[in-house]
Amino acid sequence: MSDAQRHATPDIVITDVAPRDGLQNQAVAISTDAKVELIRLLARAGVRSVEATSFVSPKAVPQMADAADVVQRAAAQCPDLRLSTLVPNLKGLERAHSAGATEIAVVLSATETMNQRNINMGLDAATDVSEQTLVRARELGLRTRAYVAVAFDCPFEGPVDLDTVLRLACRMRDAGAEEIVIADTIGAAAPAAVKSRMAALAQALDPGTLAVHLHDTRGLGVANAWAALEAGVRRFDASVGGIGGCPFAPGAAGNLATEDLVLMAEQCGLRTGISLDGLLDAVTFAESLLDRPLGGRSIAWLRRQQNPRGKSCT
Ligand code: COA
Ligand code: ZN
């Protein structure tokens, strides 16, 4: 990819959530150095937005206990990168702000039980806390995102009403969320539902502020991303190597892999500004951290392009 291509305004914006959604669920403890290096490799590949960490209770998610160090060091190393941080409440916001974070994401699930399991409060309390956190974040001058999690299917309560998702998304927007991220947290959605639900949301909200966060549990991640594109969505979360899964949502497998999304988008003529070779370097690094093979559906083909004379398996 030439410098001109890399610096052109992308047609789609991808937030790589591997350092947060990808790492939060890993059994092996990852060092702060390694997290910062993963973020640096993503930035070097041309990724412009990364969800770096979460300011949650270290008792709930020990892997994210070094959130402040990750933010400070990643910001120093990658000054042009948008670094988002997930915060579940005002205490998380306070910690993120003291660490110098410039962007936060609140996480509101669309069902009673998922909020209880994830952040230990019911839907009404979680909605209030998310609103208060967004309002305060805007007062502090931070950029804001709001997740509406389990926006298609909940692992505890089953299919989720469109009306509920619309209502919560509008409340997050009205409280000041600049980006509303509709999340298929357990990867249960299919393209028809993604297209119709995202189209309905795009009508109710400013489509430019709408993002989709997909998991590839059933192998439908790329098809779902295409369905979202057809509904007018241009902002996507994805995770390099397809790493991911929520510790509080049973059955959630990895996220849609960033390399799969970039490959699909570029082959369809949509510029991402992201280098696939650069992403492969990040996948290889993540494999060394987690000590297992990673990568989305396209990984074997992508590696063959990178190394056409490499040995093939028999
Ligand atoms: N960061 C660090 N500590 C926090 C915190 C935060 N954002 N919010 C609360 N705490 C601390 C409190 O200070 C208190 O500490 P203490 O025991 O030393 O006094 C303790 O956690 C309990 O506080 P409480 O408000 O009762 O929280 P809780 O036990 O009900 O837990 C959450 C609520 C939101 C903090 C917890 O469920 C959580 O961190 N969930 C994160 C889930 C997650 O990351 N999911 C994946 C991403 S979607
Ligand atoms: Zn997720």
From TrEMBL:
Which GO biological process entries does UniProt record here? ketone body biosynthetic process; L-leucine catabolic process
Q: Where is the Pyruvate carboxyltransferase domain?
A: 12-280
Report any Pfam family annotated for this entry: HMGL-like
What does the record give under GO molecular function?
A: hydroxymethylglutaryl-CoA lyase activity; metal ion binding
Query: Is Ribonucleoprotein found in the keyword set?
Result: no
Q: Which UniProt keywords apply?
A: Lyase, Metal-binding
Q: NCBIfam families annotated for this entry?
A: PRK05692.1
From the Swiss-Prot or TrEMBL record, give the protein name.
Hydroxymethylglutaryl-CoA lyase
